Amino acid sequence: MCDTCGCSGDGGAVLRKPGVKGYHVHVGDEGGHHHHHEHSHDHHHGEVRKVQMEQDVLLQNNLLAERNRGWFEARRVLALNFLSSPGSGKTSILEKTIPALLEQCPVTVIEGDQQTTNDADRIDALGVPVIQVNTGTGCHLDAQMVQRAVKELDPPERSLVCIENVGNLVCPALFDLGEAAKVVVISVTEGEDKPLKYPTMFHEADLCLLNKTDLLPHVDFDPAKCREYAMQVNHHLEWIELSARTGEGFDEWIAWLNSKIAAL
Amino acid sequence: MHEMSIALSVIEVVVDKAREEGGGRVTGIELVVGKLAGVQVESLRFCFDAATRDTLADGAELLIEESEGRGRCEACGERFAVTNFFARCPACGQFRVTVESGQELAVRSFTIE
Ligand SMILES: Nc1nc2c(ncn2[C@@H]2O[C@H](COP(=O)(O)OP(=O)(O)OP(=O)(O)O)[C@@H](O)[C@H]2O)c(=O)[nH]1
Ligand SMILES: [Mg+2]
Ligand SMILES: [Zn+2]
What we know:
By secondary structure, chain A is of the alpha/beta class. Chain A is built from eight helices and ten strands. In chain B, strand 1, helix 2 and strand 2 form a beta-alpha-beta unit.
């Protein structure tokens, strides 16, 4: 049940805006795909037929994602999908990145979390437009949620849209949102074998940010080893080491972003 | 657990098609799930019953074919079976495999009454 209007949102996603009391949009309200009670009538009993399909299960999501991608490209918008385990530092990285970019490029943000607007509030404090998508029981953003959020955000031409996915290294890997690139974040307080434990995510990613390098002196984590594992899973993966705490490595990361923005 | 959304997508795809086909009861669904698709077949089965409830596919039997992964070495061109994304090439020993198949996630067919 939706905690704002009391309607039964059947566990569907809800959009919220920091500081806008009462604002909430249920994703999929308009022509969504709800399950109705089926009453099968006028069929021939007893006769069993086989229907061939060969249809990709994620086709619906993939088609919507392609529409999002086309929309982004037409507007020259760079959309990035940020993915990680809970707490690796996605929001902290955005908090440090956005002020450094704002002079040359407008930025808007879509925040995905199961509950709360905490992350959107942190982005709102930077003064950039942000939409929170609460996925409820859902463990990932999908293309429809992003389509809906983008409609609300209406990002300007030649801008950057940062999509922070739900903290989860498994499920979001399968759902294309229409982004230009997937940025996976891992921190030095996690195991260096994470890329081997969650290979699908690292295989799908374009860039890996190794965060919290300020903690390296205190933990038993070998960045070279971690990178080697990640490259075994995906030999096209780009790799940048940084710290959202100290700003170390941000020159390289901002340069990466600027090269993508320049190519829009 | 993305297996629930996948189960729901399966049902949506099948039920839409079943309606086109006259709206009879769906008695069985055949899926192909690649071993590198990132989907746990066990949890998919677990979610399937809940996903079919009160739909045309309520009570349908689920058949899953798990397809093998195939990869090609970008260093030497060797083709070989892979069970993961970090396969070592049996010919040259490098980790530069490109997965060519094994990521399928498709509805192959269903039976309708
Ligand atoms: N020492 C250190 N701590 C950091 C760094 N980056 C983030 N943190 C801390 O890690 C914790 C989690 O950071 P978040 O930015 O909220 O992580 P997240 O990935 O957005 O988390 P979820 O959205 O919940 O998945 C916070 O306590 C941050 O202060 C860093 O570079 N160094
Ligand atoms: Mg966050
Ligand atoms: Zn080889």
